[in-house]
Amino acid sequence: MSAPLVAVTDHALERYRQRVPRRGGELDERPELAGRVSRAFSAGRVEPGPAGTVHVRDVERPGLVYVCRHDIPRGELVVVTLWEEGEDAAVPRRFTDALRDLR
Fold it and tell me: Residue 102 carries which DSSP code?
């Protein structure tokens, strides 16, 4: 499966920064994030999600799931948000659930 052009929203980038430690001191991790999504997509780690989204599971960290909108005719994939599954998640689900309960 060939990878489409990958774009990253500001929201997805912030969530990525919360979960993945900086490696090389880059000011913008967008190329790193787009590369990870592209590699995972090419490896076939894609599953359908709700409301027309697709979930792309990271190759290096399988608990990291990217929620994307896939525009097949244009060959574009937009990373909208992401989350991390598992008890060893950098931002455990209980924290994100607690924030939702405050609304």
Answer: T
The parent domain of residue 46 ranges over 5-101
Do strands 5-8 and 76-84 pair parallel, antiparallel, or not at all (unpaired)? Answer: parallel
Determine the Cα–Cα distance for residues 9 and 60; give it in Å rounded to an integer: 21
Q: Count up the domains in the chain and report the number.
A: 1
User: For residue 17, how many other CB atoms are within 10 A of its CB?
Assistant: 12
Question: Phi-psi region for residue 86, left (φ > 0), alpha (ψ -120 to 50) or beta?
Answer: left
Question: pLDDT confidence of 98, banded at 50, 70, 90?
Answer: very low
Domain containing 20 — which CATH number? 3.30.2310.20
Q: How far apart are CA 72 and CA 70, in angstroms?
A: 6
Other C-beta atoms lying within 10 Å of the C-beta of residue 42: 14
The one-letter code for the residue type at 17 is R
Q: What is the pLDDT of residues 18-69, one digit of tens each?
A: 888 776 666 789 999 999 999 999 999 999 999 989 999 999 999 999 999 9
